[in-house]
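ARCHIVE RECORD
Type: protein–small molecule complex
Small molecule: nicotinamide-adenine-dinucleotide
Source of inputs: curated submission
Record status: active
Notes field left blank by submitter.
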Amino acid sequence: MRVLVTGGAGFIGSHLSEALLDRGDDVWVLDDLSTGRLENLSTFARHPRFHFVEGTVLDGSTVQDLVCRCDRVFHLAAAVGVKFVLENPLRSLRTNIRGTEEVLEACARHQRRVVLFSSSEVYGKGVALPFSEDDDRVMGPTHKLRWSYACGKAVDECLARAHWEQQQLKVTIVRCFNTCGPRQTGAYGMVIPNMVLRALRNEPILVYGDGQQSRCFSAVSDVVRGALLLADCTSADGEVFNIGSDEEITITGLAERVRTMCASSSRIEFVPYEQIYGRSFEDMRRRVPDLSKILRFVGYRPQRDLDQLLESVIRHTREELRRPIPARHAPV
Ligand code: NAD
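STRUCTURE (tokenized, with ligand):
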């Protein structure tokens, strides 16, 4: 199969591309390298079935051309990371809404099956846990830019659903919960790469707020496996799925776990949210997925626990520190 991966030079996209090559597919990546990196592709960049196109999903003719050439599409290109979105609100909305519209329109025109990567952020501040796909969404006010990412992803889901209803587009939506693993950069505010890097350097590990907010972190290998299973499941067309892990941990608990596993002498330092993200920032206290739907459809269960995930990130970060690449190691 010929597969287009938008955002394939990013963290999840590069792992997905690698998995597709491993199973025998031809892979085309379209990426503008805004947060993605060529080094993420280095282990397979010379593979004869791999093709890289530097460009943007906002360029309709490039998108049309690539979609037409491929049998299937995974759409991951997006402005990602709380820090990136707060610093680039307009660009983020354009990429995440207009870019997705280009991809969905091309897929509808050429009748290509597409898996759309959405986010657990669409649940917003909901408190009825675990979050299930049919739950109501609870958003903060529009002037708090943090919610613009969630709103953009929700519009993407609505667009996808409309194409499915009106144009019989075969589209499956995956709502990723916090996904981590090797190659994820901490430069845009992702917590695990930042904590691991600081712990390995014996620098203070930063915890925002009171640290009692909790998350469920999933290994990227699990998310990639789940997305591939859904892409091959015709009854998943038109459906939305949570994907990730339901192993919950507070951010203080995570900092302690990282420190122990890195055998670090770092102290844990609490930093007010305002200091990092400004005064109007809002966060959600807990975020736990209900994974029963994806289990029912494709038998998905996470296979790697948090310790295994952290081990893989620590190993990768140690290797990277041995061959310094300055930009990658800028913690926030
Ligand atoms: P990432 O930043 O590593 O990947 C996004 C990729 O998209 C990057 O390579 C970037 O260069 C590329 N990109 C951005 N704008 C583009 C444009 N206009 N045209 C072409 N390429 C463009 O982030 P990631 O964590 O790998 O996220 C991948 C997808 O998964 C995104 O859609 C994101 O919203 C979703 N997601 C990720 C997480 C997570 O925890 N990592 C959680 C929820 C949802």
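CURATOR ANNOTATION: The radius of gyration is 19 Å.
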